[in-house]
Amino acid sequence: MKEERDQWASRLGFILSSAGAAIGLGAIWKFPYMTGMNGGGAFFLLFIAFTLIIGLPLLIAEFVIGRGAQREAISAYKKLAPKSGWSIIGHWGVFGSFVLLSFYSVVGGWVLIYSALSIPGLIIKENSNYEQLFGMITTNPLVTIAGLGLFLIINILVVSLGIKDGIEKSSKVLMPLLFVFFIVLVLRSVTFEGAAAGLNFFLQPDFSKITGESILYALGQSFFSLAVGFSVMVTYSSYLGKDISLPFAAGSVSIMNIFVSLLAGLAIFPVVFSFGLEPAEGPGLLFMVLPAAFAQMPFGEVFLSLFLLLFLFAVLTSSFSMLEIITSAFTEKKNRSRVKVAWLTGLVVFIAGIPAALSSSSLSGFKIFNLTVFDASDFLVSNILLPGGCLLIALFIGFRLDQSLMKQEFSYANSLSGGSYQLWFQIMRWLVPITIIIVFLGSLGIL
């Protein structure tokens, strides 16, 4: 077990694997529709600001904790703060990852189904109604549950074998390809008639559309898309050697995440406005817009199939990290069989994910605070559990973790000036927790 998770083979492998954990549904699927529902360009600017000012320091923090402890999430906090209650952060992360994976896998199932349909060319057809196709898939209980199950089986098989060799080696090839195909899609999207309106919506901020709720959503989106708050990156960085600069790695992941979010917006919104769709379509936006865009390209079916397969990989690398944090929590300390724990965890996640999978069909009338199970799970994760986890990590860094260990981990292979550590530490100690608390209270109407 310990030999299997010693170290990543290279700095590039770790960065691309961490980017793969972060760049999934958050950047490619959720970001476009959240931007569409919250005013476009102003939301994008808030997202960038929160990512760089709050998300990046938090990502460095999780890297520091993980490499400093060389343990999975729960054990890491126990080792760094023995005989204290700080291990609740690890438990919080495992629970949050479980909830997130239960509905994330539903969308992963949609991507899997779309990928399977695209290979024989069953998506792009003459006079196709892509909104109707999406509805047919998401409202069919057997199809959505089958997609959920198959998606989780892929996760279980990979995590059962250990993630180092498979994910790292694949990430070095497939993550760059994802960027290439995204750029191809953007170049085509911006040439559609009426694309300028979509570009204006996405790139020209209108702050009159921003509300307290929108600010909370932008903060939550920055956490969601960087995979911070649930100590997933604590587990990933526990495989890391001392020859890698944590600020450099975190900065690289953050910039790639912003770039992918930019590409997602540039690819989606010109097509939305060109085809007269509503930018606030919600979770189905990507599944209705992408096929319409590729249908206008030469060899559109081939491009759509390749993109969906690469998108599926990006989604899977994110879900691998969620299943990994849960699996590691139950295998590392008690030396349980990774294979058995992965299959058992996957089965429990599958059962927990069924209500979310049925939110558009059999359980569409069942509401929690006027939200479907899927939307309620999304709200719980993005707006409560993720900000809460980030707040706890910030307090742990700012008031509990040994400063000498933090400074040492921060400084390894780091060419930044000596003052950069103090700047990061003060941001984590004061700015991050205060911002999270203010935004959260503001969204509740308390401030």
TrEMBL record:
Name of one Pfam family that matches: SNF
Domain of life: Bacteria
Classification via InterPro entries: Na/ntran_symport, SNS_sf, YocR/YhdH-like
UniProt keyword annotations, A-Z: Membrane, Symport, Transmembrane, Transmembrane helix, Transport
Stretches that traverse the bilayer: 12-31, 43-65, 86-113, 133-161, 173-203, 215-236, 248-277, 297-320, 341-359, 379-399, 427-446
Location(s) in or outside the cell: Membrane
Keyword Transmembrane helix: yes
Membrane topology, as annotated: Multi-pass membrane protein
Xref: PANTHER family: TRANSPORTER (PTHR42948)
Similarity field: Belongs to the sodium:neurotransmitter symporter (SNF) (TC 2.A.22) family.
Entry protein name: Transporter
Upper lineage: Bacteria, Bacillati, Bacillota, Bacilli, Bacillales
